[in-house]
Predict the structure.
Amino acid sequence: MAGKKDKSLIYWSMNYRGKRRRTLVMLPLCVIIGVIAPFYCINEYGSVWPAVAFDVILAVTWVAQYLYTTKKAQEEAAQMQQAQRNPNQPQQRF
């Protein structure tokens, strides 16, 4: 990912290492929302089940995003190491 940065305000202009870090930073926010959601749903709807469904979806989405960005960050690191070892060969594009 030539030209992409580790740190950026815009998610789409970051490399996968930065995206993985941002996903880790979002974990406390997801936990806080997951704890507050049941109280809100009980107060608003009189049932905790919408909050449970929301919490499950939130957790599954976070884990899937973390696993994907970790895998892509490892591939990106391997690609960069390969490019450093063989600077004359063209890089593979995904």
Observations:
- The radius of gyration is 19 Å.
- The mean pLDDT is 85.
- Helices lie at 16-45, 49-85.
- The first helix runs from residue 16 to 45.
